[in-house]
Amino acid sequence: MRLLASLSVAVIMAGLATMPVAAQPQRIVSLDYCADQYVLGLARREQIAALSPLARSDYASLAAEAEGLPLIRADLEAVLAAQPDLVVRSWGGDGRLVATLERLAIPVHEIGYVTGFEDVRREVRAASDAFAAPEAGEAVLARMDAALEAIDLAGAHTALYVTPGGVTAGEGTFIDAIIRAAGLENAARQSGWTDLPLEAVAAATPDIIVTGFMNGGTEGVNAWSASRHPVMRRALEQRPAVPLDTGVLSCASWLAADEAVRLNALARQEARP
User: Fold this and answer.
1) Which helix H or strand E contains 117, and what residues bound it?
2) What pTM does this model have?
3) What is the number of other CB atoms lying within 10 angstroms of the CB of residue 173?
């Protein structure tokens, strides 16, 4: 089987070596679900040769758009069989795959790390340029900016992000960027990802609880986490909770602006007498 697989790869590589490189990619292959979202949102459908197996998962924001498109694993034989002229990845595929693609002169576009909406603008423009579709990038950014600019800042309401594993997100995370864009103050005072601040919650319950991945089937694993502590249970009972879209949590993109709008609407509702 290994010999056959090696021969298959060799044949595919030989065929690719003779293919002309198009200025505008005609066969885009995506290696993971975050790359899928950028490809589905920015490339033309006829440019997409294949997506990752998770493109139609429950936590993919653009799962409906992936219907009818081929899905492949992020391994060398499957990727080369799709005959890509551009491969897109966020974290999918390993170093050997990427090195082989580079050796074959197949361009690889990497979605960078995102911690705020300025980073989203950078990554959208870079991806849409790679897809030779800059107008698509500017269109989604215009919608994102319009949503953010229309937000009526809520005032001094505080919000705390809570996960089943008992961690929260402070400054320097994309969750913090969403909370701040919604006009809220992040109750997590430390930067980065930290344990839930149970003492601070006990002293001053946040006005809004923002939850993520609470329906992920991890109740058994997280039964003893800080998110199940009586302090957090009381906070969840006493304050409105907003579950963030899992697609946005799984892949930071322009779609997060809609989550900021939802958070802001709840904050304004809570501010009414």
Assistant:
1) helix 117-130
2) 0.84
3) 22
